[in-house]
Write a structure and sequence with these properties.
The complex is a heterodimer of chains A (306) and B (546). Chain A is mostly helical. Chain A contains 14 helices and no strands. Chain B is α+β, with helices and mostly antiparallel strands. Helix content of chain B is 31%, strand content 20%. Chain B has helices at 3-18, 52-61, 110-121, 139-152, 188-191, 202-208, 260-268, 279-287, 318-327, 330-336, 366-375, 393-408, 420-427, 447-455, 474-485, 489-506; strands at residues 32-37, 66-68, 74-76, 84-85, 91-95, 170-173, 176-180, 222-228, 232-237, 251-256, 274-276, 295-299, 302-308, 341-343, 382-389, 411-418, 435-441, 509-521, 525-526, 530-531, 535-536, 542-543. The chains are: A mainly alpha (306), B alpha+beta (546). At the A-B interface, α2, α3, α5, α7 and α8 of A face α1, α7 and α13 of B.
Chain lengths: 306, 546
């Protein structure tokens, strides 16, 4: 496993380097003045040029990128051009909210999609299957900002069961997690369903039933474990995506996460913060890929053997 | 990791994640004023403050030499009285009040004001307010010396080597503070109300260095108790504050990152004490008998307008610009945003020195507009991009109404919405954007702040130009320059009005409206009065204990 991990590391580093370069070039290609958000509308050219000079934004692009890279290697992603907040500190401060929301969403995905996927595969073409898959199609098509508003309006504003927004207690996470979970659960139910259909026709499932194992054990212990690897691949990448920031859900429920940070960074053309948040998201995706690879070995002995 | 440990870790992760956010609902003080704001504040350093929302917070933490009362008159604040002004209007002498203490317990001195002004002028501070203080004698030489110090390197915090090490035009002597200006400026005392001149304790600034923006230390009634980025800001009473402000509150808590729709729901559910009423909910809330009596309306000292670049076709022709002014139905635009503003007749808004209440403005006259366009050689109209920034949601609605009005006179305006930074860069560059929508809010309530910034041809530069219409009229330039240095109030008023007459006639800007802000407060909130410059003075609010 260690060898496999070491083999993948140079590729991962190269991916991060490429990402940083592309993001840096795109951020500087935008025809906008990065000093504008910091200086406001009343600062004149002389004041802005002085600020630009102090921030080293008038250095050649290559020098700016190399300085960024050198500092990044030492774990310093610089300071925000707008708030002067250290980028690494800003990301770490926002990560807990995103992590809590992602885990909540993930829990809803799995708790809903696994039983539904398994049962609809078992009762294929029956009314339960059709109804569930129909509902799954509907939920997959729901935009999160609309569903979030709907839940917020109905369950928080009208009924007062949950806080309207904010990040204060466990109750604050229920509606955002449901918003993420409902949309994702439909997709995962369909994924588990398709994967299970393939597995249920396999000989070892027939053999398990012939051995007199209970249907629950056959489905959830033998069939689901073999149907899970394709789901795990998608789940790993989706989780990394969630951890990189869930923009709409965080916005609707005023969660102080990475999504909100990234949006503000882009709106303010805050290049160091954009670089930091994108690199962090890229790091999560690369790490998730590595973890999925390693998890394959744990789940499927054939991969370990190869 | 075994399964049990894995599950325990999984359960613990969100708990750890929630820890920083917990406790938002449980305020230690019984009288905690709670409201929300859509985006986080950029800095609590007075030298970096330029937006209205942060200025409101500055008053909680700091104080200035002068303040502005409800009738927009200057009144002493940390000064013992109004300044003595020399006959040539270049020297302003203040006496600093005794017995005022910073939040760290140290007594305020006149030198703390000098230090604050010098700090704004030091390029290392990167202060957007530096523009405003450039008229203080010796400002440029002081700036150049600090640049030389920065180039030399190896200096300790606050260490100055290059001469001049002090700002020539700002001197402290005991409790006396003297400012001397390069040119006379009757609007200078207004700068004494602004955050860029609020006194700072040098020892705290140097102790915190780059982190001073989140470790404020002033003479105001509150101190910063907590600032969790994108989550909340909390202020508590300053134990060293001896004044009367803030007596009705134990704490102020601002929740960050809540959009207006969410804020409205939270306000109605009793989770917030104050609400800046969004246009979408204005009609519903003001018709609700629970809230109608609690509505407070404020005219902002701001003018929002269409900008026509006088150096770009077809707006080089004055008739075209006047046609646009006649084509816009300002009343309809205001109805479209539920009356969140009043139609504008001039650039200098009501309440600002130099405003002329007798102006009638351009009428809505599409036939007249068509006639002027035909005379200018555009009988079939023309097509043009109309740029506007994303950061003011209500503008999206207003430019749509304007687009429809212009269509009626055969001007085909394509709406081009861009981020503020892109807008600012594009419209400030010469011969780049012909037509745009923007607004100007006062730095201080004086016509010069509007007319000199927006219409002075001498200020035209190739990029980052504040004269976005690139309007250049030699007479107007002369009048504006004369008004800026005039030592006679009546003469200034006459010069500014004469200049504005010509500007409105030439129409580089098609003024559309002056914005109104509407606030609602819950019944337990008392003494919530609105102020043209400071909007809500939170420190005056008294809250009933629950």
């Amino acid at each position: 496993m260690t060898v496999r991990l070491l083999r993948r590391l140079p590729g991962a580093a190269l991916t991060l380097l490429g990402t940083s370069l592309v993001v840096f070039l795109i951020a500087h290609a935008v025809p906008a003045d990065p000093v504008a958000a910091f200086a406001g509308p009343h600062a004149d050219k002389e004041a802005r040029d002085a600020i630009r000079h102090e921030m080293h934004l008038d250095d050649p692009l290559a020098a700016q990128y190399l300085r960024f890279l050198g500092n990044a290697l030492r774990g310093d992603l610089g300071r925000s051009n707008v708030t002067r907040e250290p980028v690494v500190g800003a990301i770490l401060a926002r990560f807990p909210a995103t992590l809590a929301l992602s885990l909540g969403g993930l829990a809803v995905w799995l708790l809903v999609s696994l039983p539904l996927g398994v049962l609809t595969a078992k009762y294929r073409d029956r009314p339960l299957d059709r109804l569930t898959l129909g509902l799954a199609t509907v939920t997959v098509s729901l935009p999160t900002f609309w569903l979030g508003r709907l839940l917020q309006f109905g369950l928080a504003y009208r009924l007062g069961w949950f806080p309207v927004a904010g990040f204060f207690s466990w109750a604050s996470l229920v509606l955002p997690s449901l918003t993420l979970g409902i949309v994702g659960a439909g997709y995962y139910a369909r994924l588990v369903h398709s994967s299970m259909l393939e597995v249920l026709n396999q000989d070892y499932v027939r053999a398990a039933r012939a051995r007199g194992l209970s249907e629950g054990k056959v489905l959830f212990k033998h069939a689901l474990r073999n149907a899970f690897p394709p789901v795990l691949t998608v789940l790993g990448l989706d989780t990394a995506g969630l951890l990189g920031g869930v923009v709409f859900t965080e916005s609707v429920f005023a969660l102080p996460g990475l999504g909100a940070l990234s949006v503000q960074a882009v709106l303010n053309l805050d290049v160091p913060m954009i670089m930091g948040t994108v690199l962090f998201a890229a790091l999560l995706v690369v790490t998730a890929n590595l973890i999925v690879d390693l998890a394959y070995q744990w789940i499927d002995p054939r991969v370990r053997g190869s | 990791m075994n399964r049990r440990a894995f599950l325990a870790a999984l359960a613990a992760a969100p708990a750890a994640a929630l820890a920083p956010g917990c406790g938002g609902g449980a305020a230690p003080g019984a009288r905690t004023l709670r409201f929300a704001y859509p985006t986080d504040y950029k800095s609590l350093d007075p030298a970096q403050c330029f937006d209205a929302a942060t200025m409101q917070l500055m008053r909680l933490l700091y104080g200035g030499l002068l303040d502005c009362d409800d009738d927009m008159r200057l009144v002493p604040w940390l000064a013992a009285g109004l300044p003595e002004v020399s006959a040539d209007k270049k020297k302003y002498t203040f006496t600093v009040r005794k017995g005022v203490r910073f939040a760290n317990g140290r007594e305020l001195t006149a030198d703390d004001f000098v230090y604050a002004v010098e700090r704004v002028l030091d390029p290392a501070t990167k202060s957007p307010a530096e523009t405003l203080l450039r008229n203080v004698r010796g400002a440029r030489a002081f700036k150049a010396a600090r640049e030389a110090d920065a180039g030399r390197g190896g200096l300790g915090p606050g260490e100055r080597v290059a001469e001049p090490t002090r700002l020539e035009g700002a001197r402290a002597d005991g409790d006396t503070l003297r400012f001397e200006l390069e040119r006379p400026d009757l609007a200078f005392p207004w700068l004494a109300t602004m955050p860029c001149t609020y006194p700072l304790p040098r020892e705290e600034v140097e102790r915190h260095g780059e982190e001073f923006y989140r470790n404020p230390c002033g003479t105001g009634p509150f101190v910063l108790a907590e600032w969790r980025r994108d989550l909340r800001v909390r202020f508590e009473r300053n134990p060293h504050y001896a004044g009367r402000a803030g007596a009705g509150l134990d704490a102020i808590e601002i929740l960050i990152g809540y959009d207006f729709m969410t804020q409205t729901m939270m306000f109605e559910r009793g989770e917030l004490d104050l609400l800046n009423v969004p246009p979408a909910d204005f009609v519903r809330l003001t018709r609700d008998p629970r809230w109608r009596p609690r509505l407070r309306t404020l005219m902002l000292q701001e003018t929002d307008f269409l900008v026509m670049n006088c150096e770009m076709e077809p707006f080089t022709d004055r008739r075209v610009r006047r046609a646009v002014c006649l084509a816009v139905d300002r009343e309809r635009a205001m109805r479209a945003v539920n009356g969140m503003g009043v139609p504008a007749k001039c650039l200098v808004p009501p309440g600002v020195f130099g405003h002329d209440p007798g102006r009638t403005g351009y009428p809505y006259d599409p036939d007249g507009a068509r006639r002027l366009l035909a005379e200018a050689g555009y009988p079939e109209g023309f097509a043009v991009d109309l740029w506007y920034p994303t950061d003011v949601p209500v503008w999206a609605k207003i430019v749509e109404v304007i687009q429809q009005d212009l269509k009626k006179v055969k001007i085909d305006a394509s709406l081009k919405q861009v981020a503020y930074e892109v807008f600012n860069d594009a419209t400030g560059r010469r011969r780049n954007v012909a037509f745009s929508f923007f607004g100007w809010t006062e730095n201080y309530p004086d016509a010069g702040d509007f007319l000199n910034n927006l219409c002075d041809g001498a200020r035209i530069v190739d990029d980052q130009c504040t004269n976005m219409a690139f309007y250049d009229d030699p007479d107007v330039n002369e009048w504006l320059h004369a008004a800026a240095v005039s030592t006679d109030e009546n003469e200034r008023l006459a010069l500014y009005r004469k200049a504005e007459d010509r500007i409105l006639d030439d129409a580089p800007y098609c003024v559309v409206y002056h914005e109104k802000a509407n606030y609602l407060c819950r019944p337990r909130v008392a003494n919530c009065t609105l102020h043209p410059l400071w909007y809500i003075r939170y420190e005056d609010i008294a809250l009933e204990a629950p």
